[in-house]
Amino acid sequence: MKHTVLICDDAIFMRTMVGDILTQNGFDVIGEAETGVQAIEQYDRLKPDLVTMDIVMPDMGGIDAVREITKRDPAARILMCSAMGQQALVVEAIQAGARDFVVKPFQPSRVLEAVQRVMS
Amino acid sequence: MDTARYSRLFQSEGRELVSRLNESLLALERDADPLAHVQALFRAMHTMKGMAAAMGYGSMAAVAHAAEEVLERLREGSDTPDEALVDALFATADWLESALERVADDDAEPDASPVIALFVRVAESANTNSDRRVSVRLRQDAPLAGVRALMLLQAARKLGSVRAVVPHEHSLGDLQELRDLSFVFESACESSTIDLALRSVGDVEGVRVESISPDGVQKLDSLLPDATLQPKTPLPGVRDAHTSMARVEVRRLDSLMALTGELVIARGHLIARATELADASLLASASRLSRLVGELQEEVLATRMVQAGMVFDRFPRFVRDTARKLGKNVEFVLDGREIELDRALLDEIGEPLIHLLRNAVDHGLEAADERVRAGKPAAGRLTVAVVRERDGVVIRVSDDGRGVNRDAVLARARATGLVPAETAELSDDDLLRVLAASGLSTRESVTELSGRGVGVDAVVTVASRLGGTVDLKTTAGQGTIWSLRLPATLAIVRALLARVGNETYALPATHVRATADLADIQKATVRGRDVIVLGEDVLPVVRLREVVGLERQDLLHQDVVVLAAEDRRVGLLVDELLVQEEIVVKPFDAAREGARLFSGATVLPSGEPALIVDVGSLL
After folding, report:
1. Which of B121, B377, B402, B550 has the maximal Cβ count within 10 Å?
2. CA of B357: how far to CAs of B54, B307, B323, in Å?
3. What contacts B75, CB < 8 A, 6 or more positions away?
């Protein structure tokens, strides 16, 4: 069975890009969220195998969303998507329970490596 | 207390104490009566403790205190200065040195736990424990490496307890660039389990798990002999001298230097133009500007000059550590540490010198019994001497070891076609060329020869990139001398400009001994080769035209430049000598054919490019 994924990013461009990389590698994108609040709501509803989470989003940021999701489901597999220069935020996200991170601009091979680590 | 007033004093005295500690430790290790040096060590450590405490540097005081206690036990004779203990004391000196640097930078002390842990281990040397030292190397392209390092620690903590993390855990989150992480790990897991768990964190290039044996000495990793011989930290660049200093980013000095270089070129343009226009007031302004630029350039050059000791003071420790790892007995002498060199040059030359030192200890110097059999003192002698010479410096690395094995190198060079098969003997120059061309080692056994590129090529490459030359003299059974002849400053050099055909070439003035009109000097042919006779000297002639691939042309008037490097000289024939200029050396990618003949390029005041002739390659 295909792994399911929820993609959280406020930019359509990034969602599309991440979605393409994952779809081409056998994932089933079952949800997309533009804000942290939406991410939590959709996680509860969809129970995806994997979440990709942008760090900076309107409404509720990615880190708070990670905190909230892992509180509800400690087994949640969340991969952070960060820009260069957000090192401190990535540290926080990892401490909040994210499993791994990738850095924009995305290289498909790096995204897949990270995804495999998160899924294993 | 207003500590700012005292911090300068603290720095200078602290550094002095650290170098005294290193000296005493080296002496302690060598001396038949090690206890003679314990008293000096104790005093230095005690002073350090008091000073650090007064400045409010708790960690430094604590480290000095721990060391003091160990020294106290030595003094009383209730402990002996074994290897682990001396190592711990060396580590203390290193730590104190880095702590001094850190507090000067940002008033924050580095983590003392690794050093303290060493003393704890020395003290509990009878106890066995399951501690292991884990070293992780991250992939070079690992993004946010500091975060990855934290994730590694997180993963490790699932298997055991982590301490003595290097670099300090609190700093990891802010680190952008990081290759190596290490920590002491107490865990019941197999090494292979630890290895696997850490690799699965991602972006890991390698993991090393070493047991820390009960006596506190880490076992050497036999798989990575070279890595263990590397200095633990890269050689430092400028460190503060002891007087009042401002810390300046090296990058700023470099750009100041480059701008000054451009200014010197612009000055050349301006003066040329003013002369052309023959406008008196413009000329006056131009010459005033010219003088100011000259002064500015001198000042900028001066800011870049640092004492050789800034980098070379690491060598005694490096030689000692290397010698110990290889079981050799080596007496090391460093001469001329006060000679000033351009910082950039010093930075570049540090690593190649380390190559030569490692080679000397590893291959050059014999084991004690072999030396004694050969009638030499048991301890090998290794010297690094810096000598000022003309407007350059010479760095000599000499040892009294067995010398390079000419026959082995010759055999290898013949086999690989580096020299014609009928070659019966290699001169010192040929030897250097072969060693540099092939990355051959100087050791006899062929497996070693092919196994280790020892970097003679790196030494030669760096020296020539810096506008210098390398010379090798070696005598079987007596030793080897490497001489690196370098300009004292980089980037701007005086050069004699010479024309052949329509092209201008720059000859570094360091190498120019004399110039003459060919018509005025005596010429002859010796064994089919053209030579010129100058006084009692007979010099071979090299035609720059031929060197750069132009047609040979015997003009009525031609100039001869006598070029020299080390003790070799040559008469270079050029169409015409132009002027002496200060030129800015631009490093130059050896992409084009024949690039070996040139050490760099420059832009002349006229705006034309000119290649800088690598004099060493003509000789």
Report:
1. B402
2. 40, 20, 10
3. B35, B38, B39, B42
Please give the structure tokens belonging to residue A113. 């490596």
What pLDDT is stored for residue A31 in this prediction? 94
Cα dist from B409 to B120, B121, B281, B422, B436, whole Å: 49, 46, 66, 14, 11
Tell me the whole-structure pTM to 2 decimals: 0.43
Phi and psi, residue B388, nearest 5°: -80, 140
- 3-state class of A14 per DSSP? helix
Output B113 or B156, whichever has higher pLDDT: B156
Q: Are B392 and B485 in contact (CB under 8 A)?
A: yes
Of B5 and A119, more confident: A119
Distance (Å, whole) CA B129 – CA B284: 80
Token pair for residue B332? 């090391």
Is the separation of the CB atoms in A2 and A92 below 8 Å? no
Of B154, B173, B202, the CB nearest to A87: B173
Closest by CA position to B132, among listed B119, B124, B145, B121: B121
**DSSP secondary structure letter of residue B109:** P
Rounded to an integer, the average pLDDT of B357-385 is: 89
What ipTM is given for this predicted complex? 0.85
Task: Produce one character per residue of B339-361: b if its CB has 16 or more CB atoms within 10 Å, e if not.
Answer: bbbbbbbbbbbbbbbbbbbbbbb
Please give the Cα distance from B326 to B357 (Å, whole number). 13
Distance (Å, whole) CA B99 – CA B113 = 13
Q: Is B285 within 8 Å of B323 (Cβ atoms)?
A: no
B485: nearest Cα among B395, B399, B585, B569: B395
Contact of B144 with chain A, judged by CB distance below 8 Å, is answered with: yes
Burial of B601 (0-12, 13-18, 19+ CB in 10 A): middle
Pairing between β-strand B492-500 and β-strand B503-508 as defined by DSSP bridges: antiparallel
pLDDT of residue B247: 66
pLDDT at B160 over 70: yes
Question: Cα(B252)–Cα(B238) distance, rounded to whole angstroms?
Answer: 13
Query: Across the interface, do B174 and A114 touch by the CB < 8 Å criterion?
Result: no
**Edge-first strand listing for the sheet containing B529-534:** B512-517, B559-565, B568-574, B537-543, B529-534, B522-526
Whole-angstrom distance, CA of residue B426 vs CA of residue B408: 11
CB contact under 8 A, A94 and B144: no
Q: Does B173 touch chain A (CB under 8 A)?
A: yes
Cis ω before B587 (30° cut-off from 0): no
Distances (CA, A) of B619 to A25, A80, B481, B527: 62, 61, 19, 18
Are B144 and A90 in contact (CB < 8 Å)?
yes
Contacts A120 to B, Cβ<8 Å: 200
Element (H, E) at B279: none
Q: pLDDT digit string (tens) for B52-102?
A: 887 888 888 888 888 888 888 777 766 667 777 888 888 899 999 989 988
